[in-house]
Write a structure and sequence with these properties.
Blueprint lengths: L4 H19 L4 H23 L11 H58 L4 H34 L7 H20 L7 H40 L4 H11 L6 H16 L1 H26 L8 H37 L2 H7 L1
């Protein structure tokens, strides 16, 4: 079958484009942050453009609505910085200073539990599993905190790159429709309608997922902070932020976030560790049965088996970051496959 020169040119351009994108991974962070900001702020911008001003029903231009939204976001960010971020920075600094001592105390604690286990008759196979589990949990919790510290330092080193985020977000919010139309023109005219539909559905999935995930993470972070504060566990702000961050990893994220809190509580007393464990179980039952269904609804519409498989694949390929993006990527692929799998059949019906 003869392939035209135009097709070959498109294939070469596509390959070159993929190669260039693979070589400029450092620029992804500001772009991803700008996209997330755009999806979070878009409902506010749209609302401002629909509010009539005056008796003649004058509406704000979208550009002005975006600037007003940025102003509101800046005021909110200032309040958050004053009442949450600054206390968190102080607590986080104390946590970093105390981290070596905490690691040593956790090691001492696990050694003590091992000695108590040896003094009690337990079958060798069960004893081995318990010892390995305790050692892995302790080392994993400490390693997770160290990774979070390293990630925070790396993120801070890229703050200069993040200066472009508001600019990118402004143009994403202002010119999304024209950007979408320009992207659609890449495809043949006969595929314009299908491409437009796919882009709109994928945009809706990502938009709903990001906004829902942000709301859920904030709620869970506040709940964990409040619970740890009233239970008297050290570093409640750090644990609250950790809960908010790990909430972005479906299914296993809440478990990862609970481990450091339980270990820190156990350093005070086993009774407090039990209370913390019960607290996490309760709030995650509330999350699974009340918060997530009401906020997320059926945004992703993926079976739990597909979610778990997506997490395993994402974690194997790109670690924690791969697990964070695995579920929305799987949802996007589902939208894409749903439209493209039977594309030939649709064309034949026409």
């Amino acid at each position: 079958m003869f392939i035209s020169i135009a097709v070959w040119i498109k294939v070469v351009i596509l390959i070159l484009g993929v190669y260039v994108l693979s070589q400029v991974t450092p620029i992804y962070l500001p772009i991803i942050v700008a996209v997330v900001v755009s999806f979070v702020l878009n409902p506010i911008v749209t609302l401002l453009t629909k509010v009539p001003l005056g008796t003649k029903k004058f509406y704000l231009p979208r550009g002005i609505a975006i600037l007003l939204t940025f102003l509101l976001a800046g005021v909110l960010l200032s309040v958050v910085t004053s009442f949450i971020l600054l206390p968190f920075v102080n607590e986080f600094n104390n946590f970093v200073v105390d981290l070596p001592k905490l690691a040593k105390r956790i090691k001492t604690l696990t050694d003590l539990i091992e000695k108590q286990a040896y003094s009690t008759y337990i079958p060798d196979n069960i004893r081995t599993v318990v010892e390995e589990g305790l050692g892995s949990a302790a080392s994993y919790a400490v390693g997770l905190v160290k990774s979070a510290i390293n990630a925070s330092i790396a993120f801070a080193s890229q703050v200069i790159e993040l200066v472009v985020v508001p600019v990118l977000a402004y143009y994403f919010l202002k010119d999304w429709q024209s950007l979408k139309a320009s992207f659609v023109t890449i495809f043949p005219r006969s595929a314009h309608a299908a491409a437009r539909t796919i882009i709109e559905e994928m945009g809706a999935v990502v938009s709903n997922y990001i906004r829902g995930q942000v709301v859920i993470s904030v709620i869970m972070g506040l709940l964990v902070f409040s619970g740890m504060y009233f239970l008297g566990v050290d570093y409640p702000l750090v644990l609250g932020l950790l809960a908010a961050l790990t909430e972005t990893i479906p299914i296993i994220g809440p478990i990862i976030g609970a481990i450091p809190a339980i270990l820190l509580a156990y350093l005070i007393s086993p009774l407090l560790a039990t209370k913390v464990a019960v607290f996490y179980i309760i709030i995650h039952q509330v999350e699974n049965h009340i918060i997530v269904p009401n906020i997320m609804g059926h945004t992703i519409d993926l079976h739990p088996i597909l979610v778990i498989i997506s997490l395993l694949i994402g974690g194997q390929l790109y670690g924690i970051m791969g697990m964070i993006v695995a579920v929305p990527v799987a949802a996007l692929l589902k939208v894409l496959l749903r439209h493209l799998w039977y594309l030939d059949d649709v064309n034949k019906d026409r």
